[in-house]
Specification:
mainly alpha, Growth Hormone, Chain: A, 2 strands
Length: about 375
């Protein structure tokens, strides 16, 4: 069966997972894209404090799936973990929409972190269970799923217009509604799910205990988010320890594996730098665009959120062209580090460019031109 035919006979659950993940990513990017703006403009936090809270929030969002994936794989099952994750995400976005005190702000972020840990890793894993080993439909299925992710992120760019017209709270309500649509879509599509996960069905008592642990985790993460002084040391030290562990582990391997693991460590370091730069689209680059860039295109006003959403637009529009170019130039169709290198280099080049425009704008008292900063986000789709 060729790829074109395979793509026409995907598992029925794929369309429901596509829509669910589209709305999940839409909701998450609405909040992440507005988070620094919300802290600086609504609460009056300084830029460094806002960066710290945003960085901690993002770090925990992408660390929590280690625990959420383990719970789904060993105890809860993918379906239950996704439903729980959706519940916590809807609750977190709703708290942001309904309450404006700092207590509920941190509580909402903590709830979103726990929800992300339960949902993010498991919805893709669930899709993987719907294919048999060596299924030719798998690659095309995950490509469609990935398009849904980027479509949701691209749509989140419109949230800035809602924020400008109606304020932050209503925009966060939009995220909550989007997430609710996503989880209801998943619930409706469950009937098409093939249950291939071989774990013992958890008892009601175990589920109740695990749910209480999740609630306690929300409280613990909420306290951690407020302890920004501790974060300055905790996360960097944890990262350094993990990197040292990886290096030591690599050196202890047999010679035939050691060189490969050393190369992997280099890629990990490069990846750390890349993601550190990439996530500036929600932090420093976001504030730069909001405060300094002339956001008009042919007389049409653009919201700040449009700029970070461009990254996903570039992935959808240019990603297939780049993939085709790599396949044409790589007859063996094997992975090459040269596929990563250009994106890393371009990301490093664009940030000094922003610094230059910032310096010039302060000296000459003018806003940097809009078109010069669309190119900031082009390397990020690589």
């Amino acid at each position: 069966m060729n790829m074109e035919a395979a793509s026409q006979h995907q598992p029925k659950i794929l369309s429901f997972l596509f829509i669910a993940e589209l709305w999940e990513r839409f909701a998450f990017y609405v909040v992440q894209g507005l988070l620094v703006l919300y802290m600086t403009q609504f609460y009056g936090f300084s830029d460094p404090v806002s960066y710290t809270i945003s960085g901690l929030f993002t770090g925990l969002v992408y660390t929590s799936p280690f625990i959420g994936g383990f719970l789904a794989d060993k105890l809860l099952g993918f379906k239950t973990a996704i439903l729980w994750g959706g519940f916590f995400l809807v609750a977190g976005y709703t708290l942001l929409a309904l309450f404006s005190t700092s207590f509920f702000f941190y509580l909402a972020l903590a709830t979103i972190i726990i929800g992300s840990g339960l949902l993010k890793p498991n919805i893709a894993s669930l899709l993987g269970t719907q294919y048999v080993s060596n299924d030719v439909r798998r690659d095309s299925g995950f490509t469609l799923f990935y398009i849904g992710i980027n479509a949701g992120a691209a749509l989140s760019g419109l949230s800035g217009y809602v924020r400008n017209a109606y304020g932050f709270q209503l925009t966060f309500a939009l995220a909550s509604i989007g997430m609710l649509i996503g989880i209801l879509t998943f619930l409706y599509g469950i009937k098409h799910l093939k249950n291939t996960q071989k774990i013992q069905t958890p008892s009601t008592k175990l589920k109740s205990q695990l749910f209480i642990y999740c609630l306690l985790a929300v409280i613990g993460v909420c306290l951690l988010l407020r302890m920004t002084a501790l974060v300055y040391w905790l996360f960097p030290c944890a990262g350094i320890i993990l990197l040292i562990f990886l290096v030591v582990l690599s050196m202890q391997q047999a010679p035939e594996y050691r060189s490969r693991l050393i190369a992997l460590n280099i890629l990990i370091l490069s990846s750390i730098v890349f993601w550190m730069l990439f996530l500036q689209i929600f932090n420093s680059a976001n504030l730069f665009v909001d405060r300094l860039v002339n956001k008009h295109l042919f007389g049409i006003p653009l919201s700040t959120t449009i700029f970070y959403a461009l990254e996903s637009v570039y992935v959808i529009l240019l990603g297939p062209l780049l993939t085709f170019a790599w396949q044409m130039g790589n007859s063996k169709k094997t992975f090459s580090h040269t596929e990563i290198f250009p994106g890393n280099i371009f990301c490093r080049i664009r940030f000094p460019d922003i610094g230059c425009w910032h310096a010039v704008s302060r000296l000459r008292k003018f806003n940097p031109p809009l078109m010069g900063h669309f190119s900031l986000f082009i390397p990020l789709y690589w």
